[in-house]
Hints:
five-stranded mixed barrel; about 240 residues; 6 helices; alpha/beta
Amino acid sequence: PESQLSIFKEDVDYKAMYKDIMATHGVAAADIACIGRKGALHKALAESGAEPSIDVALPHFNMAVFHLQREEGAVTLLTFSISPEFFGDKSGQLVKALQDIGVKHITFVGTAGGLLEDSQVGDIMVPRRLKNFSTGSMGGSELPNAASGLMQEFSESDHVNHDQLRSEDLHVGVHSPITESQEMIDKMKRRHVSSVDCEAGFIADALRGSDVSLYALFFVGDVPGTHESIGMGGVSG
Length: 237
């Protein structure tokens, strides 16, 4: 039950740590950051002839840096894998650090639990808005998802399974799948939440009042409250 849930926080300034690591590797400014599906993105960039100028792999931080030439000029692109370095609320701290170095566009591609009656593993969710639900209530900021305006482009892409592409309304973030009790799952469903993950809510809070555009989409990896759940709400056996 939520009444028995305790959240333990580390006394570490991750935002400052992330900025220090980036500065140590010569990254004082950047234009675009892509969080999630780092390997797939690198493969796509390599096909167009782009290779990273820097690739950082530390125990608590991973990053690759691309310097791309475009018609409008040079663009610095940063890429990150989510897990394990930026799992959960650390993703929000990373986004705060990225804002401080001037990033204006962030893509986030994560995995999520599908909460709709017809949710299936493999669905690609493109929600219109994002909120934090980590406390069990709809606190914090609501963030519009810029990716929802790209549904036409997604539907025409050869890289997207069109049958599983879904434009939905509300996606929320929680601390961890282990907090997904049946009580919490039912509460999210009553609020018409379409999908849930462990990062997007903290990213939404981090971008409160900013002019950074977030483009987020989620691959459904489980269906909370069913035999296809990875959280406490799952049916074992």
